[in-house]
Amino acid sequence: MSTWDTQKPSKCNSALSFHTFPTDFKTRRKWIYAIRRDHFAVSPHTRVCSRHFTNEDVREPLSETARWLRKGAVPALFEWNNLSLPLSRQTGVGWLTNLKN
């Protein structure tokens, strides 16, 4: 079983890539919760920039021009948290794992 998402990787340039929302309901809900936007609606065209993911969650392209996200990766780096991980995530206490079905 691969630790990298099986959905099509995002096309990217040398600095950024843009990723579609996951189809898995639980992971998709975690993304929406993490983004913290009021009245946020996801469409098939909604993307999240690679800068919102940790380095561990993004696999840089080797010979392709695409980046892959780690399976289960959730965007965590935002302006409202100074582009750093929330303390609870750094200490291993699940800030997103508390989400129930």
UniProtKB/TrEMBL annotation:
Main location: nucleus
GO cellular component, one term: nucleoplasm
Organism: Labrus bergylta (ballan wrasse)
Family stated for the protein in its record: Belongs to the THAP1 family.
Domain of life: Eukaryota
Role according to the record: DNA-binding transcription regulator that regulates endothelial cell proliferation and G1/S cell-cycle progression. Specifically binds the 5'-[AT]NTNN[GT]GGCA[AGT]-3' core DNA sequence and acts by modulating expression of pRB-E2F cell-cycle target genes.
Record-level Gene Ontology MF annotations: DNA-binding transcription factor activity; RNA polymerase II cis-regulatory region sequence-specific DNA binding; zinc ion binding
Keyword DNA-binding among record annotations: yes
Record's keyword terms, sorted: Cell cycle, Coiled coil, DNA-binding, Metal-binding, Nucleus, Transcription, Transcription regulation, Zinc, Zinc-finger
InterPro entries: THAP1/10, THAP_Znf, THAP_Znf_sf
UniProt subcellular location: Nucleus, Nucleoplasm
Biological processes, Gene Ontology terms: endothelial cell proliferation; regulation of transcription by RNA polymerase II
Domain THAP-type, chain residue ranges per copy: 1-78
Name this polypeptide is given: THAP domain-containing protein 1
PANTHER family, per the entry: SI:DKEY-228B2.6-RELATED (PTHR46600:SF7), THAP DOMAIN-CONTAINING (PTHR46600)
Keyword Zinc: yes
